[in-house]
Amino acid sequence: MAREYNVGGGGLTLANQAVTLAFINPAATQGFEVLRAWCGQTGTATSAQQRVQFNTQVTAFPTLTSATPSKTKFNDPASAITGGTAGAAGTAGINASAEGAGTKTVVTHDTFNNLNGYLWVPTPRELIVMGAGIASGFGFHLPVAPGSLTNWQVGVTYGEIG
Amino acid sequence: MIELNLDPMAALRKRQGEQCFETENYVSSPPALWIIDETNACWTLGFNPGEAPSGEFAFNVLRDGINTGVFASRIERRNGRIRCFTKDGWKVWNGRFWF
Fold this sequence. Notes:
The structure holds two protein chains of two kinds.
Chain A: E1 4-12, E2 19-24, E3 31-41, E4 49-57, E5 63-66, E6 70-71, E7 82-83, E8 91-98, E9 104-113, E10 118-120, E11 128-130, E12 137-142, E13 152-161
Parallel strand pairs in A: 7-8
Antiparallel strand pairs in A: 1-6, 1-13, 2-8, 2-12, 3-10, 3-11, 3-13, 4-9, 4-12, 5-8
Chain B: E1 28-29, E2 35-36, E3 42-49, E4 59-63, E5 66-72, E6 74-78, E7 81-86, E8 89-92
Antiparallel strand pairs in B: 1-6, 2-3, 3-4, 4-5, 6-7, 7-8
């Protein structure tokens, strides 16, 4: 497999609200499939359960910290998706400071223990595919603020398709 | 535009500091991001795909960020031991190698 990229960050301090951890919006001519998503924290050793969602969101998109996708196969070209703060088509970002007014459509709900972290790896038929040019971006979202906001790690691995 | 040089791979390496803990039995990764054993080693799935059990994806199994030589679809802590599910079934870590 080739043309796989990571979007993420570490040591993040989250806003004390529902927060989109990572947001990737397909480009007009470049779609992607989500291969993996993960988050965890080392800010507290106090056990707690935390809700998490995958969703899609139409404009207005979240306000993010820009995150340039990094290659996992170093002979690959740079991703067609670039870092951006506005969640616009063809951009990716992390750790939203504002969620944007666009409607979110939840793909999956889940829950994890904050000490164990959360890793989502689909079985082959569970792949989430975001086609080129669609109006929605993919969000990895905490729908309620976590008890501890510091030292979060988050990432999404995607493969470009088409 | 601000570009941060943050480290998304931090979860794959050995954790340091006061927040280390020992993962309870019957925790499985995925959905857990990591499993911390009694030696404070951090177990997680890497990014390199390999031969998989039917109907699943499998990736290299990392111990403190270092390959352990098997591909598995999940890692589990059971009865104080680390085991993983490979195309050949469950394998158990004895502290040095899988059997």
